[in-house]
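User: Some background: our group keeps a shared notebook of sequences we're curious about, and every so often someone picks one and asks for a predicted structure to add to the entry. Today it's my turn. The entry only has the sequence so far, pasted here. Could you supply the structure so I can complete it?
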Amino acid sequence: MDFNNKTVLLTGASSGIGYSLAKLLPKENCSIALLSRRENILNDLANEIKIDGGQVRTYKCDVGNIEEVRNSFEQVRKDFGKIDIAILNAGVSSRTDVSKYSSSIAKEIFEANTLGIVNCVEQLLPDFIKRKEGMIVGVSSLADSRGYPRSGFYNASKAAATLLLESLRIELKPHNIKVLIVKPGFVRTPMTDKNEFHMPFLMDVDRAAKIILTGIKKEKKIIQFPLPIVLGSKIMKYMPDWLFDFLMSKELPARNN
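Assistant: Of course. Here's the predicted structure to add to the notebook entry:
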């Protein structure tokens, strides 16, 4: 994949992995459309990366709001003519104990992590299919492997995102549209800074962004890292239910105190 003279759309660009990716993209000689809910941060970021000569524009957009997605994508196409690569990175997380089980929290997480991808893909496909080209890069997580205590909403939303992207990858291949799935482990971002538990192999966000960008260039179907967490997630996925339940239940008392 050559980014040269391509238009790259990036959601969730105001924080974490998206923010770091946005700072790398100008070096690829591409035009950049940055989307996020936090417009003030986007504008500061755009002014910073313009120094490197990148053509960049910002768009206030909540990916969970279909009207905002529709309007933003339409404006991006008007501004740049077309979208070549869409990096769908926007996402949220919240750890919730059963004593505070809330459908409103679940709604917020699924709207951002799952429906946010659906909303964006809906806007991309007509043009991509017509042109018979395009790339969709969806950011999921290695947390999609099991339902971990206090993270059920997040795990389920990422599992749904992974399966949606996997289905699209197969269906869109005859149309010459590539679908890549990004599955990071623990990355140091404002989202993970809220976690109260130990995060093994916690990775610097700039390093994670470089791995993702390299994976996109190589058109890897699944970009997953770091290797120890990749292997660990596979072990957890196929672990017998009785053993998984036993191990996870041992963590509950310490987390509930």
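Suggested note for the entry: Residues 152-172 form the longest helix (21 residues). The beta strands are 7-11, 31-36, 55-60, 85-88, 135-139, 178-184, 222-225.
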